[in-house]
Amino acid sequence: MACRTSTFEPLVAVRPGYWRPANFAAAAATLDHLTGGRVRVNIVSGKDDLAAYGDSEGEQAQRYDRTREFMQLVRRLWTEERVTYEGEHFSVSDSTVLPRIAPRGDRRHPRLYFGGASAAAERVAATEADVQLFWGEPLDGVRERIERLRALSRELGREHAPLEFGLRVTTFVRDTTDEAWAEAEARVAEMAAQADAGAGTRAWQNPYRGEAVGQQRLFDLASRGEVLDDNLYTTPGRYGAGGAGTTWLVGSPADVAKSLRKYQDIGVTHFVLSDTPYLREIERQGEQLLPLLRG
User: Fold this and answer.
1) pLDDT tens digits along 132-158
2) Which of 22, 70, 163, 217 lies at a 20 to 30 A Cα distance from 121?
3) Do residues 66 and 58 lie in contact, with contact meaning Cβ atoms separated by under 8 Å?
């Protein structure tokens, strides 16, 4: 995809433990070289089927300690030569990544995006990430987390440029407000029917429930109402939606753009927007929503 485009910037997800820092730093540097500096990186530390990849589960604190080391070492490998590092989880000796990452203005290396709402995750974000990603929480929740992360960055003595903030959310866009809500409610009704059909004699439970702190925060929003702020739809999370699909910003292009501008006003500067199925919806997003957000 990067070879066939000129402005597309892939946001590449990587899990510490599945990748060793030096292997990943070298692979990402090669892709960054081939694309003229278009690579972005999303560091993922949440639970997964780790054993299937030959990794060990570990406690939450251990996983995030490993993530901190991974980010520190990758950043050094991208910006220094002949790196020697001996940590609890990773080590390298006299290591130099080739090709070198070419500085481009203020950009010394690919940005490191990071998500996580637990106390351990926030400490990693405050000190090591370039961009903290939030899922679709209401404005008051995002504002509170931005303020806490900024304070934590000062408290922990952050050494990098100020932490930036991003929003990963489903944007359910249709030509008109009424059409958007009618289709969103119809989709959720289908999800509810499927959940009921799959429950049998047992009470149905969302398979994502009980996982990450950030995911639980999204599920808890439904207790505050089906629609929060102007158009943040919380009901999908009741019937099987998870991750960025737990909550949706629903409306016309103008409705959704207005809501996204409000996140921008409180300090969000990176937006990862989509709806499913991706191939069908990306055209609507690009033609109707993005033009209202440029400039």
Assistant:
1) 999 999 999 999 999 999 999 999 999
2) 22
3) yes
